[in-house]
Structures are given as C-alpha cells and as structure tokens.
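Long-time lurker. I teach an intro course on protein structure, and each term I like to show students one example going from raw sequence to a predicted 3D structure in token notation. This year I'd like something fresh instead of my usual example. Would anyone be willing to generate the tokens for the chain below so I can use it in lecture? Attribution to the forum is fine with me.
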Amino acid sequence: SVADMLVTDDNFSSIVVAVEEGRKVYSNIQKALQFLISTNCVEVFGMLIALLFFPKYTFLLPAQMLFINLVTDSLPAFALGVEKVEKEVMCSPPRNPKAGLFSGSVGVAIIYQSILQTAIVMVVFLVGVYCYSPSVASSMVFFTIIFMQLLHSLNCKTNGSLFEKNLFDNKTFNLCFLITLLLNLLVACVPFMYTIFNLEFLNLSQWIMVIIASVLIIPSCELMKAILSTDKKFVKNTKN
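-- Reply from a regular --
Happy to contribute to a lecture. Here you go:
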C-alpha cells in the first residue's frame, strides 16, 4: 500500500504518513480487542466462579448479559477503533510481521485487566450475598459491570498513563461514551427498567459501593501500568 502511494503521489515523505496511518490502525485494533476481551472475561470468569462456588445464587441473568454485550461493550469498542494516533507511535521500532495482535504489552494488559475487573466484581457479589440478599447481589454486580466497563474504556485509550493523554481528543469516543452513560443511567434511574431486567432497587450504601467499585478500575490499571513500565525500564537498563 505504501509503494502504491509513492508511485501515485511521487513524494517520498508520503512513506512517513502511510506508516504512521498503518501503525495507528493496527494500534486501534489492539485497543478495541483489549477492551472487548478483558470486559467479556469478567462475565465469563464471574459466571464460572459463581457456578462452581455459589451454585445456589444467580450471578447475572440472560437479559442483563444481553444489555452488557449489546450496549456497554459495543459503542466504546467502536469508538476505540477510530482513536487518533498517539504521539509516540513513530518512536517504536518496526513491528515483527510474525507478531500477533496480542504481542507486546497487549496480551499482558488483557490478562491483568481481566483479573482486576473479575476480582472487583466478585468482591461486590460476595458483599451483596452475605450482607444483603442474592437478588440484591446480582443487581449490584450488573450495575458495577456496566459502569466499570464504561470507565475501563478510558484505560484502553492508551497503553501509557491516562494522565499523559488528552482523553477528549476523539469526538467519536466522546459521543459514544456519553450515549452509553445515558443508557446506563436510564436503566439505573427509570423504575420500569428494573422490571424488564429483573433488578432490585438499591439503597444509598449499596450505590456507594457500586460507584466505588466501578471507579476503582482506573487507579488499579494505572498502578499496574506503572509497575510494568518500571519493570521494562529495569530490564532494559540491566541489558545495557
């Protein structure tokens, strides 16, 4: 594709533009996959753990899982696919053609993000079961997942720290984030939605726990990014 562009454009500098665009597309595919796989692992692992250790209790209902997959997962993943190019994208060496989509830090990110989200959700589930009721626990899990996954889409915008990136430079992402947030709030605030999704009304303390658990995914991922970044620098300096 780069060669065709050079022949058509007759401008050697087009190579830089074409390579940058190619790297951006590849990076965005990785970001979307990272978001989709890590968020869906929460449902899979959560259902599996609940089935093995708490078979009497319902983790999520089919209608709730359908909402998560069709609404909370879809729009942010689409928006991540059209992220703007990151500043450091041209500083990295050429990618090995044999390397897969999960090469580099992407595979590691998916693993630790899946574990973090699953751990947070399972804590919410256990607190709900033992402090309130199984039905309240299921509702708390549902609301925690939809809001946590929405916030987790921010983590997937960059492999670096969120504090080093302009989070609002992608208008498509901003729009998708806002629409998804409004849909989530619609389910959380409109009474007849509780009947449709078989949810329990949560009290203030339960909502506080849901909010804290949802927001916790951002500092947790930031901490893991910092740890992994420090390890990479240490290994690099040791080799040198």
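Some talking points for your students: The chain has a mean pLDDT of 86. DSSP finds ten helices and no strands in the chain.
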